[in-house]
Design goal:
heterodimer, A: 295 residues, alpha/beta, Rossmann fold, 2 domains, 3-stranded parallel β-sheet, 11 strands, 26% helix, B: 509 residues, 5-stranded antiparallel β-sheet, 18 helices, globular
């Protein structure tokens, strides 16, 4: 759904500009199941090139590794996926579930990501997996993944280049920055002017469970629906791009000791951060404390 | 000799395969709806924080994420009796309605109408026109629908940060404080959408369409102007009638609405006397509207792998995957919800019938339930929604109060009932020590696509398929049309097998 939200150019224009032929998509393609079955056979025999395989959703292996919780025509879908992944020039995991396992990862369904199980490399396709081009699985996490990220990655792959990737195999261009970067509430964070209840306006990091300074993603750079982001309207970042999503502790709450969050902004030294924040709070300007900016 | 057929639907709410038996004439004599995906969402919720449903349940579905968020928040508010400020009610309604506008049109033109351009339907002299407008990825209407529905969703991003999957609706109101500039932007977007919807979809103003109140008036409206005949609605009605869709896909003839869109106490919106919601709750049986009571819901499991218990109310019901591995009585991961033990259908048509809309009651009496009636109800739902959205946008922000902190969510149980685009949606939750101890969701497709119940009575789609004539069993497109008319939010594949021998399969959506 987020892909349909791509703007200037829109989704249909991108397909045309990149000269991309959609061989099959669950809701957009209009081929019959018989044709699809024949298409799969042509791919598996090498008669039809599969340049890019995009996978949405986790790989469901339950119960007991059988994959029978997710079948088609009585066969586990995971087997089809394994076969197609071997033929594809590039494999792209779209969304957090396909990248890391996501919501069903530790549940009955024994879900996993394509090339990661949470933070651990491996996943369904195994640690050594490389696609036909020699590139690893490209992860595009997020729930949902931003449409521009999908479109931009497809653009790279159509030009036969692999974008620079981080340790979780996600493109640095979109996952090298924090959700915090570009948030209009940055000044509140800077001077530790906190929000303790919804609608108060303030930094959501200290009490409301915001993971913006911890989670990597372009939400506040390229914005959603060309308009806004959760943190811009007072909804904490839920860390939906992270390998541990959904986090084990309750949402909308920041685990803390003595009012200092247990989890600090990515890469920050605890002692220095403590000193910096207490001084910053003392220096907070009145206009900010009184929320005169209305942000 | 009988043959058998199947329909898998995608993972939005669980994949679904339909099996159907055909007689010598190619007519469906029996059908079975089988959910083929188990996601275990309800069990994932157990032990999590009380508010976690606001984050996880919207992710059940990429197209009705705001509906799940609404139900999750209402269920928590029900536990503690939270008060929601009127302006927050307005903004919540506005967002969920924008999601409906988007979903109704994307489903109709990107999923349903795609079937009607199948070469099988060249029997209609409007087929060429249909192909030009509705062909996947390139039809002129397809392109416009993508563009316009994308724009209307910006309303949700403005008040809620993003679509899909925001969590801005919280117990006690909404997390955001929309500025007057933000509300202005929403008004412009809505105005633009109305203009396009009137010109392209209806071919007339919303006010003119409101004057169509009977079968006769609908026929007269079609003849009145070329703009009416040539609108998307006009073409769907004319092409659909030529294909006999006004006599296909009957269904159970009983309708259920949970009710949705609470009215702000101080609104000037004109509604029927005594109404508390824009969409009335109710149960229609034998053309009589009865009050809706959630206590009368029970989920049957005789034919479901989701458990091995008898039937249960969702406040008690558990999900314990029970896979025997053998094809026996059980054939679906979906449960079979029943209301007062009855099979019902839900969705825009159910809403119109429960509201006793004169046009739909008249059409129902003259022609009965059909594929075309369901599609008509879905396409004109915006006629109810847009004026309410306009009214509430104009009223919003006067008090500038969008959130009242609710009492602490420590213990208790509750439920949240609303409508997703495709019908009645309910969440049932219990919490202890601020942790979730029980979570059950009944999405609308579970009503419509349910398997047989404990008395072996087929579900709504299973019933609607009976009598459908399939011309080519290796490509049973006609079944897709019937299934799609329920907007199952799912992509389907139809398998045709002759006894155990596969003949062919088709994707119907």
């Amino acid at each position: 759904m987020s892909l349909l939200g791509v703007e200037s150019p829109d989704f249909l224009e991108i397909l045309a500009h990149l000269d991309l032929e959609v061989l099959w998509h669950p809701s957009l393609a209009n081929t019959s199941a018989l044709q699809r079955e024949q298409l799969v056979q042509r791919i598996l025999t090498g008669e039809q090139h599969l340049d890019i395989l995009c996978v949405e959703g986790s790989v469901i292996r339950g119960p007991g590794g059988s994959g029978m919780f997710d079948t088609e025509a009585g066969r586990p879908k995971k087997d089809l996926l394994a076969a197609l992944a071997r033929c594809a020039r590039y494999v792209v995991a779209v969304g957090t579930c396909a990248s890391f396992g996501g919501i069903g990862a530790d549940g009955d369904i024994e879900a996993t990501g394509l090339n990661f199980a949470g933070q651990k490399k491996g996943g369904f396709l195994g640690e050594a997996f490389l696609s036909q081009s020699g590139a690893p699985v490209i992860n595009l996490p997020g729930c949902p993944c931003h449409g521009d990220v999908i479109a931009g990655t497809l653009g790279h792959l159509c030009a036969n280049t692999v974008p620079s990737l981080d340790a979780y195999q996600a493109p640095l261009e979109w996952f090298g920055l924090l959700v915090h970067q570009g948030c209009v509430r940055n000044e509140y964070h800077e001077y530790r002017v906190e929000e303790r209840r919804f609608g108060e306006r303030g930094c959501l990091f200290f009490y409301m469970g915001c993971r913006g300074p911890i989670a990597y993603g372009p939400c506040n750079k390229i914005l959603w629906n060309r308009r806004s982001s959760k943190t811009r309207v007072g909804v904490p970042c839920l860390g939906c791009t992270q390998p541990d999503f959904p986090q084990p502790h309750p949402f909308f709450d920041t685990p803390a000791i003595a009012d200092i969050p247990l989890e600090l902004p990515s890469g920050v030294d605890r002692a220095h951060y403590l000193a910096y924040k207490s001084m910053a709070a003392a220096a907070a300007p009145e206009r900010l404390k009184k929320r005169q900016t209305g942000v | 000799m009988n043959k058998t057929i199947q329909v898998p639907l995608n993972r939005v709410e669980g994949d679904l395969e339909i099996r159907a038996e055909l007689d010598d004439d190619g007519r469906v004599t029996k059908a079975w709806c089988a959910g083929t995906l188990f996601r275990g969402f309800e069990r994932i919720m157990l032990g999590r924080g009380a508010l976690d449903g606001l984050v996880l349940t919207p992710r059940i579905c990429g197209i009705c994420s705001t509906a799940h968020l609404t139900a999750a928040a209402l269920a928590l508010e029900h536990i503690v009796g939270a008060v929601v400020p009127p302006d927050a009610i307005r903004i919540r309604n506005l967002a969920l309605m924008a999601e409906h506008l988007q979903s109704d049109l994307r489903h109709t033109f990107l999923m349903f109408a795609v079937d009607l351009v199948h070469p099988r339907f060249q029997t209609s002299d409007l087929w060429d026109e249909a192909v030009q407008r509705w062909a996947p990825l390139r039809g002129s209407t397809t392109v416009e629908v993508l563009r316009e529905t994308k724009k209307v969703l910006e309303i949700i991003a403005i008040v809620g940060g993003q679509w899909p999957h925001s969590s801005f609706i919280v117990p006690g109101g909404i997390a955001s404080v929309p500025s007057s500039g933000a509300l202005q932007q929403c008004k412009h977007l809505l105005r633009g959408y109305r203009t396009w919807y009137e010109r392209t979809i209806l071919g007339c103003t919303i006010e003119r369409w409101q004057g169509v109140r009977s079968h006769g008036e609908l026929a007269a409206w079609l003849e009145e102007r070329p703009a009416h005949r040539d609108s998307e609605l006009g073409l769907l009605l004319r092409h659909g009638r030529k294909l006999g869709l006004n006599a296909a896909g009957r269904g159970p003839g009983r309708f259920l609405s949970f009710g949705a869109f609470d009215l702000p106490p101080d609104t000037k919106l004109r509604v029927p006397m005594g109404a508390r919601q824009l969409i009335n709750p109710g149960f229609v049986k034998d053309n009589q509207v009865h009050p809706f009571e959630q206590e009368h819901i029970a989920e049957h499991l005789a034919h479901s792998w989701a458990g091995n218990q008898a039937c249960e109310h969702p406040a008690q019901g558990l999900t314990r995957p029970y896979a025997t591995g053998a094809e026996g009585e059980k054939y679906s991961w979906a449960k079979a919800p029943r209301y007062q033990g009855q099979v019902v259908e839900t969705g825009p048509l159910a809403e119109a019938v429960v509201a006793q809309s004169p046009l739909f009651i008249d059409l129902l009496e003259r022609e009965g339930v059909s594929v075309l009636l369901r599609v008509l109800a879905r396409l004109v739902r915006a006629v109810e929604l847009i004026p309410a959205m306009e009214c509430w946008l104009n009223e919003a922000g006067k008090h500038n109060e969008f959130y009242i902190p609710p009492p602490s969510l420590l213990h208790g149980s509750g439920y949240g009932l609303t409508h997703a685009a495709r019908g009645a949606l309910g969440h049932w939750i219990a919490i202890e020590d601020s942790r979730i101890t029980h979570y059950q969701v009944i999405p609308p497709t579970t009503w419509n696509a349910s398997p047989r119940d404990n008395d072996s009575v087929p579900g709504a789609i299973e019933q609607a398929l009976v009598g459908t004539r399939v011309e080519d069993p290796s490509d049973p497109i006609e079944l897709g049309v019937v299934v799609r008319s329920f907007d199952p939010c799912l992509v389907c594949t139809v398998h045709t097998v002759n006894r155990e021998q596969p003949l062919g399969r088709i994707r119907v959506g």
